[in-house]
């Protein structure tokens, strides 16, 4: 597939009139830069972006999809995609693009009109986490782990209604030994199992993190910048299990999972997600 990863946002640069410059950067999934151009902030419009994407299309052909990680960029690219007939995907996982953006940051100080402001090309404003809707609460939840070698065989071929196992997150692709314990969270949803799984599918889970505090919390990172409080707890045994969960993430290269099932019989699963922090 011909997939682009793209970003269009302001940079620590200005033009000769003092206008802040935005940069359009498009690369493929290997990091090869396809197109790059600057635009003064007053000229930032859908039409400008359409014209630039059309130039890029003329060079390399129409992409199957454009992946965008920045919310401010996504809205503009979505309009461009609708006009040009290109699928636009909102995803945090644009590693090639993020690598290029970090490299570009080292080049900006060499520009004549570098502003010198503090700048992080990957920084996004994230809202406070919201509580999980009460009507989706399941019966119980717990920390768990699965040997890396059992994940693909145990879930990929099963009739699970909602299954998210991206190829790039499969243990084999990550080079994990089959005996590595991949940590995760299992939710016994009871009657709410399917509504919960459908809601999760809609919000697009990315990572599930333990956050110590008073109380401790389990925070779901989802979509581009959304966060949800999946659970809170003060029990010391649960907190110890949470710390082990985070330790296991370190040995699994950050790979973890979320499993939603009606009950703990192990007979049927409602939803399964492989997750990794962006």
TrEMBL record:
Query: What is the protein name stated in its UniProt record?
Result: DUF1092 family protein
Domain RNA-binding protein Tab2/Atab2 C-terminal, which positions?
A: 120-275
Residue ranges of the RNA-binding protein Tab2-like N-terminal domain? 3-104
The family database entries (Pfam families) matched by this protein are listed as: Tab2-like_C, Tab2-like_N
The terms under GO molecular function for this entry are:
RNA binding
Q: What is the native source organism of this protein?
A: Coleofasciculus chthonoplastes PCC 7420
């Amino acid at each position: 597939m011909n997939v682009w990863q793209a970003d269009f946002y302001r940079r620590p640069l200005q033009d000769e009139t003092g206008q802040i410059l935005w940069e359009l950067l498009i690369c493929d999934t290997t990091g090869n830069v396809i197109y790059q151009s600057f635009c003064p902030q007053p000229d930032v419009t859908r039409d400008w972006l359409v014209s630039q994407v059309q130039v890029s299309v003329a060079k390399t052909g129409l992409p199957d999809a454009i992946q965008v990680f920045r919310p401010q960029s996504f809205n503009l690219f979505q309009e461009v995609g609708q006009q040009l007939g290109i699928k636009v995907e909102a995803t945090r996982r644009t590693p090639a693009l993020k690598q290029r953006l970090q490299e570009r940051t080292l080049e900006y100080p060499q520009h004549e009109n570098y502003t010198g402001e503090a700048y992080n090309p990957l920084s996004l404003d994230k809202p406070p986490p919201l509580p999980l809707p009460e009507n989706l609460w399941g019966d119980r939840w717990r920390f768990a782990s699965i040997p890396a070698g059992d994940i693909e065989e145990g879930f990929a071929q099963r009739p699970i209604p909602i299954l998210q196992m991206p190829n790039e997150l499969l243990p084999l692709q990550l080079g994990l030994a089959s005996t590595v314990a991949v940590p995760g969270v299992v939710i016994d949803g009871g009657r709410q199992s399917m509504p919960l799984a459908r809601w999760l599918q809609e919000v697009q889970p990315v990572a599930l993190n333990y956050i110590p505090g008073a109380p401790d919390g389990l925070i779901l990172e989802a979509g581009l910048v959304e966060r949800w409080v999946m659970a809170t707890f003060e029990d010391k045994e649960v907190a110890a299990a949470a710390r082990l969960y985070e330790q296991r993430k370190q040995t699994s290269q950050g790979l973890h999972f979320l499993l939603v099932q009606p009950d703990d019989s192990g007979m049927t699963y409602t939803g399964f997600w492989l997750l990794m922090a962006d």
